[in-house]
Design goal:
The protein is mostly beta strands. The chain is built from 2 helices and 6 strands. The chain binds zinc ion (2 copies). The site of one zinc ion has 8 residues, from loops.
């Protein structure tokens, strides 16, 4: 069982916008931007350079509140067991 630190509120990422330097906000899971059925096809959709191999990553969309630049980033999931230790 692995989970995404961001999805579970265990970590936050403050990523500066590469264009204007403002702190980008986590706009949520990339898959939320697709139709429901697409969630099942997610791994094909991610073949745009942000592909997640065998569910090891969770892809989040970050958006800049100032200039509306956005970027998707994959975060490695961690084993739940390791978090417990
Ligand atoms: Zn996540
Ligand atoms: Zn920006």
């Amino acid at each position: 069982m692995s989970l995404c630190m961001l999805c579970n509120g265990l970590a936050t990422v403050e990523k500066p916008c590469p264009k204007c330097g403002a702190i980008m906000i986590d706009a949520g899971l990339l898959q939320d931007y697709y139709d429901n059925y697409s969630a099942y096809l997610g791994r094909d959709i991610y073949e745009d350079g942000y592909r997640c191999h065998s569910g090891l990553c969770c892809v989040h969309l970050f958006a800049c509140p100032r200039c509306h630049y956005d970027v998707s980033l994959g975060f490695k999931r961690v084993e739940k067991e390791k978090l417990m230790n």
